[in-house]
Amino acid sequence: MYKILLLIPFLFLVSCTGKPDGVAPVHGFDAERYLGTWYEIARLDHSFERGLNNVTAEYSLKDNGDIRVINKGYSKEDQEWEIAEGTAKFVENENLGHLKVSFFGPFYGSYIVFKLDQENYDYAFVSGPDTSYLWLLARTPDLAPSIIEDFVQTSKNLGFNTDNLIFVEHD
Description:
The protein has one domain: Calycin beta-barrel core domain (Lipocalin). It is α+β, with helices and mostly antiparallel strands. It contains three helices and ten strands.
């Protein structure tokens, strides 16, 4: 019994695929249409992206059906590009916008598409496992102010601290 209790914290660290309260992944998600380049328009701050601008995420299909994720951002302070490659897998099924992403071996975190322009796949509202992770992604580096306003209001209503959003420069 003692050994089982020791494993419980490790299991939580290995795969954190939960969802923030009230955040529901979109239904009718189409991975093929989601593939390609996305520009980060806004985010909540985290150490792995701190100080980065010109941030993009590139999604492509791997031979085994998983999704390759390449995140890229430019650090003005270091005068260099930072690139991270990871893998995404569906948590439940391929029609639900709930994936788990790993950049570090067996450690996965939730990637929840909770709002999506399902007609053109032009923008996506994305959350992590809790309200400290939030992104607005778009197919172009500029997005209509009405969509940004919708993102901020929707996210605020779901409990995200939108006062701390960082709006990413793309130059």
